[in-house]
Each structure stands twice: as structure tokens, then as C-alpha cells.
Amino acid sequence: MTGAGKSTVISTNGLTKRFGSVAAVDHVDLNVREGDIYGFLGANGSGKTTTVRMLLGLVLATSGQIDVLGERMPANARSVLPHVGALVEGPAAYVHLSARRNLSLLDASGPNSKRPDRSARVDDALEQVGLGGVGRKHVRAFSLGMRQRLGLAAALLNGPRLLVLDEPTNGLDPQGIHEIRQLLQELSRRGTTIFLSSHLLSEVEVLCTRIGVLDRGRLVLEDEIAHLRAPTGRTFVRTSDPALAVRVLDGRVAEQRHDELVVSGGDPALINAQLVSAGVRVSELAAERHSLEDIILAHTRAGSDRVGGPT
Asked: CATH classification of 8-228 is 3.40.50.300, yes or no?
């Protein structure tokens, strides 16, 4: 359901793509709202990339409806795509040219080709992704991470209202991942809607506000991260005195794994006070929340590639 006061940026209704008898995408109903950082998740082969390519008009749907920025796709691609930045299936570039020259050529062929501020826009895009100091270096000398940054710079070139990103942190080291996360959060604060496909669940958990999960072509989950990861009403406790803790809690321990206990009901602060006052040594205590990995695995069927594994 669309949040109060937020318009829908991406909407699909019954979106389906068949390759022969195989339904790669099967009646998918997406709802991406203005301002979302939307994580699009699923195992390899679940239909994520095919869905993204249909949203951008790169692949035609077998059936169903797609609306992007309030207009029907792909019929209105010429008016929609100038407001969309995309990095899909890895960055493309002329390796014998510099990063700056690549972006200049891309801009010259784009919808804003007659605007006089090309040089400033290219410089700004390079600075945003951390390539300001190497913009004149030939792309053939770039690492995979640097090429990924260049692809993201190309997506940002025209100040898009919507960013569609496929594995945007692929090839980046931890510092690079952190920098791109900060950039995407800042773009979101400025009003850019972000739709990203990623295998890095830890990053999705930190960055995204909503997620959609595909399993064998079907959308099996779409919800707010905050709702999915809300406290379960149970308390997680780690202690070096598990036997004593079980006795003190008197039947309220729902699960025990060595020094880890899951306690049903009660205020975590009161549980902590009860344990400590009884002499139980508590090393960790927190309200239980399901991990994003657990949530996804609970909604997907066995047999797919493991979500969160290598790309």
C-alpha cells in the first residue's frame, strides 16, 4: 500500500516474462514509492535482472503492465528514461578513453546534449563517486571497483529522479562500499528514489527502507524493513551461567543453544535486572529481531541458490 502523501514511482501489475514454456517472471506486482530505497532481492535465476530490464524497456514483457514515474512503459520510454539513471549488468565504457571523456560522450548523446554545463556536470558526477582525481586516466587502467564507480557516475549524470542499480557495490572494498552507501543515502535525502538489486544482505539491511523478494519468478514478499525487523516480543540472552539463568527464569526460556537463551515475554530491562540480581553473569541481552536472511529464507523455497551467497 502506498504511504500517505507518497506517489508511486514504479508500479507493475501482473508483470510476466516467458521464455518458451518457462516463466522467468510470473505475475509480479511491484510498488516502489517516492523516496524509497528499495532492495530487490532473490537468488540467482529468480528473475531479478529480467524484471529490471523490463522496467527500463530493454526487454518486452510477455504480459502485464509497467508504470514508471507515472507513465506507461515501454510506450513512453522517450519521456521517462531521461529522468532515470541506471547501472545494470555491469558498467560499459570505452577503455581507451578517460573516465571524463566517456561521461562527456555519454552526455553528448543524451537528452540534455545541448545544455552548456556539460563539463561541470561531468566533474560533479566523478566527484560524487570518488573518481575526481583520476577522471583523466584511461579506463583500461581502472580496477573493477573503479569501473563500477564510473558506471554509477554515468547513472548520476543527469540528476535522475529514479536510480535503478544492479549490484552497485560489486568489486568495491569495504571502504568503497561505505562511501557508496553514504552517497545513496544522501541522494535519497535529496529526493531521489532508489531501486537496487543486491546480494549483500548486510548492506540492504543498513541502507534500504523497503524490500521485495523474488523466488522463482514470483514476488513472495514486499514490506518495510522496519516492520519485518520489529522486535518479536522475545529476549535474546547470552550468559556464562546458562543453567542458573534457566532456573531463575522459571519456565520462560523458549530456546537454549549452549550459552544463548531466548526468553518469552517480559521487558528486556526487567529480565536483565532479574538475572543480575540473582548473580547470573550476562554478557549480551537484547530484544530478539529476525535477521533479514532468516526472513528471506522463511519466504523462499529450498533449491534456489542461497540468498546472500557469492554472485
From this structure: yes
Please give the model's pTM, rounded to 2 decimal places. Answer: 0.84
For the residues of 212-231, what is the DSSP string, one character each? Answer: EEEETTEEEEEEEHHHHTS-
- Rounded to whole angstroms, the Cα distance separating 94 from 208 reads 32
d(CA 58, CA 55): 8
CA end-to-end distance (rounded Å), the chain = 31
Q: Tell me the domain boundaries of the chain.
A: 8-228, 234-288
pLDDT digits (tens, 9 = 90+) for 232-286: 999 999 999 999 999 999 999 999 999 999 999 889 999 999 999 999 999 999 9
Question: Parallel, antiparallel, or unpaired for β 253-257 and 260-264?
Answer: antiparallel
- Which amino acid is it at 21? S
Please give the grid coordinates belonging to residue 119: 563539463
Q: Are strands 162-166 and 84-87 parallel, antiparallel or unpaired?
A: parallel
Q: How far apart are CA 298 and CA 300, in angstroms?
A: 6
